[in-house]
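If your schedule permits, I should be very grateful for your opinion on a structural question. I have a record of one protein: its chain in single-letter code and its fold written as discrete structure tokens. Kindly check, if you would, that the fold set down in the tokens agrees with what the sequence suggests. I remain grateful for any guidance, and I place the record below:

***
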Amino acid sequence: MRWLRRLFQKEKSERHLDAELRFHLEQRTRDLIAAGTTADDARRRANLEFGGLEPTKEDCREASRARFFEALFQDVRYGMRMLTKNPGFTLAAAITLALGIGANTAIFSIVNAAILRPLPYKDSSRIVSISVHTAMFPTFSLGASWPDFQQIRSQAASVEQTAAYSNTEKTLTGNESPAILSIAAVSDGFFEELGVTAERGRLFTEQDQKPGQTHVAVISDAVWRTRFGANPSAVGKTLLLDKEPYTVVGVAARGFTYPQETEAWLPVSLTPADQQSHTNFMFEVLAKLRPGQKPEKLQAELDTIAQRTARDFPDLGADYHFSFQYLLERHVQGTRKAYFMLLGAAALVLLISCANLASLLLARGSARQREMAVRAALGASAGRLLRQGLVESCLLALIGGVLGINESRVSQIHKSALEKMATALASNGITSSQAF
């Protein structure tokens, strides 16, 4: 509280300090008079012992820990005056910093969203995607068959949850203009594994996976808003997909479109042949490791399952095995190096900006040699002069940072606006390249 009073109620603090010192001075004077000293001699001796009222006040101010903040505020005010006094230098330095910081902010935002930030799914760091490899297709990573998925679900003890899905497209018809929707046929547990909730209605249950009960659908928030006008009564409506009716039972949470911008999800519907076929590699399998489980254990379990399957079904070919990849790694595979190269290029731009700014500061420092010499002659210490330079540099960094961040936001807004315009034009029959 004393620090705050000293900083924001300086006059009141000075009055308190003056009153306190005068009290002690008068008390010492009275003590000397009581000891037999005359009033004039007592006052003179008391002043000599105190060393003078004003020097004592200055010593008290220097001893106060709030003095540092007072001096810092003085440096900030002085630095602001110096920057406004030289607008040409300030503008050149701020723009130089803004270009470097803006480029780094924009690129790092992209890299952070694409590579560094976890995927927006529950416990996404534990979710892996399982693929099949066989000598029949030596250059491809295949999806799993339905029997493979069932074996992994039942025999992989290191896995907490598993789900399978396959992608397709279906034509939506009805009262409005026809449209092709991206569809995912998903197994039970798909939404639960990814931690997805329903914005409206419900998601799939085990009952929906039974034969004859699979003509239900969960639609994305985007389809709900564009095709149904965000009408809550959309739940229970019928969708005609490839001329087959599906009842809408729910709307997925806003922003959820996995996998690959999916617009609607249907329960897996399999023929008896598909349920038994080991060569119908149509499903992508997602598995969530148990907490604390090592990936090596999962790989050992997958190897055991693959060896047993290859032995029982020789038609699968030689070198039949499973592999897995963390979901985030799968999303960024082949692009991580490019992203980091882009980030490195942006960092190089910032380094060049800093070098240019250093040259500007050196030139300005040469012009201020006389000023610094005068301040040193008046009693300013080397530390105080150094702190003043650091404060001015920090003010420049703050101004450049604010401009750089605003520049990055403006660039992102422009990019988003261009993408929306291209989408609107493309919906009218104009291709994306023509739109841009």
About this structure: DSSP finds 16 helices and ten strands in the chain. The first strand starts at residue 127 and ends at 133.
